[in-house]
Sequence to fold (334 residues):
Amino acid sequence: MGWSDFLGNAPVRDLMRRSLAEGRLPSSLLFAGIAGVGKGTLAHFLSKAANCQKHEDDFCDDCGSCRKIEQRVHPDVRSYAPDGAFIKIDQMRDLIREVFFKPFEGRRRVFVIDQAHRLRLEAANAILKTLEEPPETSILILVTDAPNDLPGTLRSRCQRIQFYPFSPAELESILRPRSIHPAQDLPLVGRISRGSLGRALNLDLQQYREARGEMLEAIRACAGALSYHRALRITEPLASPRQKGQFEFKTGVLYDLLRDLMLIQLGAPGDNLTNIDLRSELSEIGSALTFGQIVDAVGSLDRLMKGLGRNLNKSLALDRFLFRLSGVGATPPT
Fold:
């Protein structure tokens, strides 16, 4: 195993390898991109390549150093993740104490802060000076799916490395030899994974299809004359506190369907749809909706999601969504 085993984002991989080999690797890095595109994996690879006992700019996965890093027991490689909802100041104080020690066994010390956007403000402020003036023997890597949620003072002290989503074709080519999903389902998997290899590898396609069927039925109940009680049978259980995980999952499925309906209204090619296996069915449902109704419904859903942290009444918000999608009480055009 080595750098060549990294999947996707080849320019990023090559930049990291070249920078390490030429001694130009920045000591403070920010790995940014959606979940499941290899940010954590590349940080792990970089930790090995910086300390491998057989190679200077690659790693063997066989020497003592590589094995210890793989087993998460190497004294020169440390990782920090949220303790509960946040990464706390005590964790960053530990990092600050450790970062200025010289390597115990390897060539470089590597400190990875996973989900860095969940740093508490005081924890983020505590490491500003360390990020600005790190020791030459240490590398700090902040990994995040939400770089804009990081304080600007923290972002400005790191070299940002952007990771990009996989294309549907790339995902298909990776998944096909692994036989994780039936070959006929790969085009759909590639699209509903939204460019995330991690999501594609862990996707329960049966669960997605069941949720999609429910959300499609709710949309169908709003197309044309609103069948409120029919739609309510589907949306009402989602308002239950016990359905929190399902609510977030099914809302994501609903967004996929609404996006497809918008694309159909705009006359986009069928290959641009997420749910490409429902092209005919979505076209039929879309013919009973106006573009304005779909836009209003998406806006209502956006407000619902943003209001979750403020203890928004889900039942009322879901009702509002149904009425917006059906055109009842829709915002009049200006």
Notes: Strands lie at 28-32, 77-80, 109-113, 138-144, 159-162. The chain has a mean pLDDT of 91. Residues 244-265 form the longest helix (22 residues). The first strand starts at residue 28 and ends at 32.
